[in-house]
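User
New here, explain this?
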Amino acid sequence: MLREERYNYIVNEVKIRNRVLLTDIARKLNVSEDTIRRDLNHLDEQGKIKKVHGGAISSSFHLYSYREDQIYAHEHKSTIATKAVKLLHENCVVLMSGGTTNLELARLIPDNIRLTVFTPSLPVAMQLIAHPLVETIFIGGRLSKDAQIALGGDAIRTLSHLKADILFMGTGNLDLESGLTEFDWEVVQLKKAMMESAKKTVVLTISEKINSSQRFKICATGEVHTLITELEPSHTLLAPFREKGLELM
């Protein structure tokens, strides 16, 4: 694979997944880690990605306020968020994970609905406080500099005292057989705790992330109640998830 082809692949993966590991990219492209490390340095210098320890993240992970031009597949994510808003009701208690789709959902919450929203995501919390009737409760803990999300025992202990009506969970990887997966073990533990603390789990994802998996499992596909993508529920890509019993939106 030519250098420019590697650059394009890396940038696209970062846009889709938000976070990538250097080791994963090297393995998928069948090149050395040193080669990918140099590629990441170059792309970081060009402002196309942000290099972090062990990999790279999207610049949209560092949004404290809404910036449409920095959100990958914004139109699709807006479609997903618009569908998700329909699940909210007055005085609903909501859990929200991080990610740019949840950031878009936080932006689109109507100003006339009263909610209590718990989130460990700093960007999502900052977006939520713009809504006058939304009581925003930040789930604190050790803050990840990469994902800007609270991790660790403090966050998980707080979650153990909750039972939210609904969890809106973003994901980087969803596969019918592997379920929901991530490469970050601490993020997996946080998301497991979030699922245990909610009556209903709703996964928000663009269709590009379907049929992909990572090393650590959050849950089986059948443990998800609702799957929301930008696609119509009748789309053939989603048919296997319907057969697994998921509600599709």
